[in-house]
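Appendix C. Worked example: Histidinol-phosphatase
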Amino acid sequence: MTLTDDTKRSLIMTAEKMADAARAAILPFFRSTGLDTDNKLAGGFDPVTEADRAAERAMRAVLAEHRPDDAILGEEYGRSDGSTGLTWVLDPIDGTRGFISGTPTWGILIAVGGDDGPAFGIVDQPYIGERFIGGFGLAELRGPHGTRPLRTRSSGKMDDAILFTTFPEVGTPEDAEAFRRVAAKAKLTRYGMDCYAYALLASGQVDLVIESGLNAYDIQGPIAVIEAAGGIVTDWQGGPAHQGGRALAAANPAVHAAAMALLNES
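Step 2, the predicted output written as structure tokens:
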């Protein structure tokens, strides 16, 4: 999709306003006492709080004011049709388990693009005050220490790689076994960072994030930020990952190819 410079500026401005509005909606709930948590998953635990809902409502209100004709896909309130060919993909709190546990590794995920994936995205961590931005010529981190460019790591060696995933039990038993093949070759494997792991990859701190069972709203914001920083995000076979499922995020082509080969060993 070809976008004018005016449209790009409008999308960036709107995304920033959405992230600001979601921050304001969420922070009063974080580490507060008496926060109610509902479970969306029968037979398991998939938490949602009023902070999730309030943040998505706040972002949708910004869109209603500034981009009312765009479509929306949000985790909490589903899909709203649009007429521009652009869809905003929103996860108001990615990492609600971390949020209710008090860890500052959750984030607001915002992406906008067409059917072929996100063109611009934000990963925002309100409590730390960090905002990772990618797309339309931008690749930057704004935070307590100012603004700096985002750039992924250049090392392609698996034995020097730092690898993240959110849950030790990655997807199906077959998925988990494939992940363990990569972990066995990596220098260091860490768990539990949710979207913040993707932000660390974009900022040059880690080399790989490998996950399974994702939804579109879990991965589109990170895709835009990582690709703007010079990284690669695909599914485990090298195809598009923006609709969710399995994701392989890598700092560069060499480490991506090495990890993908290990994931697909028979």
